[in-house]
Amino acid sequence: MIKEISPSMTDKLEECALFTGAPGSSPAAERGTLLDRALRELFLDDPTTFDTLNDEDKMAVEWGVAELRTLSGGYHVETREEYLGMEVPGLSKPGTADAVCVRAKWVADCKTGQIRKYRNQLCCYALACMQEHFTNSWTAHVIYIDQRLRRTYNFTREQAEELVGNLIAEASSRLAEPTPNEACDWCANYNTCKAIVRQSSEALALVHSETSIEEIKAKLLANPVDFSIFAKNWKSAEKEIAKPLLKILKERVDAGEEIPGWKVTESAGEQYVETQAIAEVAKHTSIETLILAMGGSMSGEKFRQFCADSGVEVNEAAIKRGAGSKTLRQTKIK
Question: Which residue of 7, 58, 128, 138 lies most exposed, with the fewest beta carbons within 10 A?
């Protein structure tokens, strides 16, 4: 059976060649669809959907519209969904971009939520535009409206065709093996994926062995490969089994079910004060005292946005950088 591939699947397929999108939708995806529609309409001076949004979402959409206008350089930008179908050579399912500026030779997609990788998806869109407009280069923008961030990619036809061709070949290969990654929750194969089941089973089997805790740790620490495999399997078991089951455990105990060794306790909510009350007190104190009372600092990103909202030029020299931190991240083993 031929696997149907859409542009939106391509970044996930790079992580796992067997990825298949699961049916249904999440609240985050529904919010993304709503803001997408609001942005398209507002760009055409139609505030119908925009007016239904909360203040935070309105600010995100307004920033996205302003970013598209800046990128256009005064040229026409198409945001009507019915004119933005992306027919990508080699892919069986089309995609839909959020904006195209033919004169400036760019395509854009606006994203909500976390900053994730969308380079492959935008490469597909760029290839579709090159095919339609008979050109050999195109620019693609990913606009993260929640983070007020834009990433730009430039593609030649040769680069785009090679990338898309490689993805199709890997996803169609009979030798493809499942590779657990961050997108597993969105995959239709999630519950039966042999890679996830194997990782979780091996991690749990080690815990249930009849040896001592110290012997288990000593054995793992003695061999870097075993150590790596255990850490990978344990993280998988924690994510796929432990966390979901603990959530259900809490819900069942909270509903009154007797489960030996567990109970749900409740703590009082944190107290807080809203803007109006703070403003009343601020009338009787200095700006410096108010700033110190509210923590004394803000992130560089918030400071830049604060300056933009206030119409003040950003003093980049005022933005300091604290000590870095080290994070353990899993990498692919070749």
Answer: 58
The residues pairing with 21 across neighbouring beta strands, listed in sequence order, are 187
Residue carrying structure tokens 């803001």: 35
130-176 pLDDT tens trace: 999 999 999 999 999 999 999 999 999 999 999 999 998 888 888 88
Tokens for 190, please give them: 């999630």
Beta strands in the chain (DSSP E): 85-86, 95-96, 99-101, 106-111, 137-144, 149-156
Query: Helix or strand or coil: residue 154?
Result: strand
Number of other CB atoms surrounding residue 20 within 10 Å: 17
Q: Are strands 85-86 and 149-156 parallel, antiparallel or unpaired?
A: unpaired
Which amino acid makes up residue 106? Answer: W
Within a 13 Å sphere around the CA of 301, how many CA atoms are in the beta-carbon half? 4
- pLDDT at residue number 1: 46
Q: What is the pLDDT of residue 325?
A: 81
Q: Which amino acid is present at 102?
A: V
Query: What is the side-by-side order of every strand in the sheet holding 99-101?
Result: 99-101, 106-111, 137-144, 149-156
Q: Residues 22, 193: contact at Cβ < 8 Å?
A: no
